[in-house]
Design a protein that fits this description.
Layout lengths: L1 E2 L5 H5 L7 E5 L5 E4 L3 H7 L2 H12 L13 E5 L12 E6 L6 E6 L3 H7 L4 E5 L6 E6 L2 E6 L8 H12 L4 E4 L2 H4 L7 E3 L3 E3 L4 H7 L2 E7 L9 H12 L3 H10 L5 H7 L11 H11 L3 H5 L3 E5 L9 E4 L18 H9 L6 H14 L3 H16 L18 H13 L3 H5 L3 H8 L1 H4 L4 E2 L2 E2 L9 H9 L32 H16 L4 H6 L5 H7 L7 H21 L11 H4 L18 H12 L10 H6 L3 H8 L1
Parallel strand pairs: 2-7, 8-13
Antiparallel strand pairs: 1-9, 2-3, 4-5, 4-7, 5-6, 8-9, 10-11, 10-13, 11-12, 14-15, 16-17
Helix pairs in contact: 2-3, 3-21, 3-24, 10-11, 13-14, 13-15, 14-16, 20-26, 21-24, 21-26
């Protein structure tokens, strides 16, 4: 058990960070408290900014991602727990899915409650002898036996731990997928919000850590009259139509249109929305008319001013029995299981989203894996004998539901696909590899880069590959050069993409939600940070923080033997294969990948062959110790 030194309420109210981190050695049971210097927060903010610094410093080169030397870090963002747009937290680790840098971003209430309990982050090392969970009650911290929880679904585990420790407890937990070390598993909180990508759930499972439970007495950090006045003024400055759209529909509001305009991949990236799905079927998965009528109330993450989520009524369909208060599936789930698989049954989509949350699956990876399985079945690579009689067909909700359950249980054909498409291709052989749509081991998100070229560069070259949330060209920030208006012009995007990517590092490390930032006036970011820290940051310093985080994440990837430039990108994604571009809005489009990659790398001052950040760049960002390792 650890007892932290409590600061007074008035001291804590003056700033957004607590200045306290937890170190938990699961092998020995030792729990220690760490007090970072304030300068560390000013240089890295929080979230995976802090996480990147600690990963570089404390995880030895070449560590096994599923071994005891790997770190599982949970870090709240700088603004998380404050009134100023902070809802999110991040998980960092060496990824067992990609073999290099790994992180996952999550909403819900866990990040805010962790900060309110007095902690900015938790770092887990080692491996417990038997299943355990960490209980944090403000300054009191201890490990408890979780043997009776091992094997339970994620949401069920959360409800049980809330019954033990009170309704105010916030729980981050893995489901059976994480326990069984599925490489596409995540960490669940708030009965269905997932830190989903990079295989972070498998790392948690490898440590025999079932859950983290946090109980806090405080309500909100840095809630001074001045901060509340700033909050009201900034809420008035929101782009109201955008805020209303997200509040009413969440991201499901774009599903039907995206299925037809070339944004959503179709049939494992080998189809065309207007041909293979069609306008009538797209209407069946429209957020407003197909999904919202099955919802009971709006839902928001911790103190969110937008509240873009919703919770369901109880299912009336016994084939797809999701309970009351199931989260509305968001766009990535709707597209991954819907448009990708030509499946348009709304109840099945809600139920599949619920199943993924219960098992702890990343919905992007799970839906993409189902698509690969169906195509392999269709092409005879796997047969009815391999599937124990399960017929895998496009558009069939029953077979998709059954396959996800088999993946979650690692049974039969589900065991082949339980770790995602790259591992499935290894198990099935070279003929299956062409239907495994991944980059660097991670399944590609539901946004086609042929419609938005920056996604291609992000998918291939970001240290954590195939991530759509690492780019957003925010116009109100005032610091991102414009991109060419013509989506088929590939020259001249490097500087724009560099700034847009570094902006997203600030958003993520700051604990801010990307959707809120789309509506808010992001030119105020320095003012937000300063109001709850007492700093005097300028926008130049803010953007330099984003650049510092970008370089440290890439440095870690390079140190661990990665080279994003050498990652293969499936031809269906780039347009080199015309299967998805034979008709429709993307007809004939083929990305100029070389121009996109080289201009971005040059803008970042990263080597165009190895992606290694230059020595001068690292030193200019105060990363001389990192430069010494990479450059000798």
């Amino acid at each position: 058990m650890a007892e932290a030194t409590a600061a007074t309420q008035s001291q804590l109210a003056e700033r957004a960070f607590n200045g306290k981190l937890l170190n938990v050695n699961l092998s020995t049971g030792e729990i220690t408290v760490e007090h970072p210097d304030e300068s560390l927060y000013r240089r890295y903010l929080g979230g995976y900014g802090l996480g990147a610094r600690y990963m570089w410093d404390r995880v030895p080169r070449g560590a096994d991602p599923l071994g005891p030397e790997n770190m599982l870090g949970m870090f709240a963002g700088l603004l998380t727990g404050t009134p100023l747009f902070g809802q999110r937290w991040q998980v960092v680790c060496k990824s067992p899915l990609t073999g290099g840098w790994g992180d996952a971003n999550c909403g819900g209430d866990f990040g805010g409650v962790l900060k309110l309990a007095g902690w900015d982050g938790i770092m887990f090392f080692g491996k417990a002898e038997k299943p355990v969970y960490l209980l944090i009650e403000n300054d009191k911290v201890e490990l408890r036996d979780a043997s009776d929880l091992w094997g339970r679904m994620a949401i069920d585990t959360e409800m049980e731990l809330k019954a033990r420790h009170g309704k105010r407890a916030s729980v981050a937990t893995i489901g059976p997928a994480g326990e069984r070390l599925s490489l596409i598993s995540g960490i669940c909180n708030d009965h269905g919000r997932l830190a989903a990508r990079s295989g972070v759930g498998a790392v948690m499972g490898s440590k025999n850590l079932k859950a983290v439970v946090v109980v806090a007495d405080r309500k909100i950090i840095a809630q001074t009259p001045e901060v509340l006045k700033m909050l009201r003024a900034n809420l008035d400055d929101f782009v109201k139509p955008l805020r209303d759209f997200f509040h009413n529909f969440g991201t499901t509001g774009i599903t039907a249109a995206s299925a037809l305009n070339g944004d959503s991949p179709v049939k494992n990236w080998g189809g065309v929305g207007i041909l293979d799905l069609g306008p009538e079927n797209a209407k069946k998965i429209d957020g407003a008319t197909a999904i919202n009528p099955k919802m009971e109330k709006s839902y928001g993450c911790w103190h969110c001013p937008m509240a873009c989520g919703a919770e369901s009524v109880e299912s009336s369909n016994p084939k797809y029995p999701y309970p009351r208060h199931t989260h509305r599936p968001e766009y990535e789930a709707m597209a991954a299981f819907g448009t990708m698989n030509l499946m348009t049954e709304p109840d099945a989509l809600i139920y599949l989203n619920h199943l993924c949350n219960q098992y702890g699956f990343d919905v992007i990876s799970a839906g993409a894996t189902v698509s690969m399985a169906i195509e392999c079945y269709e092409r005879g690579i796997i047969t009815k004998e391999d599937t124990d009689g399960l017929e895998l067909r496009w558009g069939d909700p029953d077979c998709i539901v059954e396959l996800v359950k088999l993946m979650g249980e690692r049974k039969g054909i589900g065991a082949v696909f339980a770790d995602g498409v790259a591992k499935a291709a290894e198990r099935l052989g070279p003929e299956a590899a062409k239907y495994a749509i991944h980059i660097g081991g991670q399944e590609v998100p539901m946004h086609d880069p042929k419609l938005q070229p920056e996604y291609y560069t992000t998918y291939k070259l970001d240290p954590t590959p195939a991530r759509h949330t690492q780019y957003e060209g925010n116009r109100r920030l005032g610091r991102i050069p414009p991109a060419p208006a013509d989506k088929t012009q590939y020259h001249g995007r490097g500087e724009h993409h560099k700034a847009a990517s570094e902006y997203m590092h600030v958003v993520n490390a700051g604990g801010m939600c990307q959707f809120i930032m789309m509506a808010a006036n992001t030119a105020n970011i320095p003012s937000w940070f300063n109001a709850v820290t007492g700093w005097d940051m300028t926008m130049d310093e803010v953007m330099q923080i984003g650049e510092r985080i970008a370089n440290l994440r890439m440095a870690y990837e390079i140190r661990e033997g990665g080279n994003p430039r050498k990652r293969a990108v499936p031809p269906r994604v780039t347009g080199e294969s015309d299967e998805g571009t034979r008709a429709g809005p993307l007809q004939g489009i083929k990305l100029d990948t070389e121009t996109l990659e080289v201009e971005y790398l040059k803008a970042c001052d990263w080597d165009v062959e190895t992606c290694k950040p230059s020595k001068a760049k690292l030193e200019s960002l105060g990363l001389a110790d990192v430069a010494a390792v990479l450059h000798g």
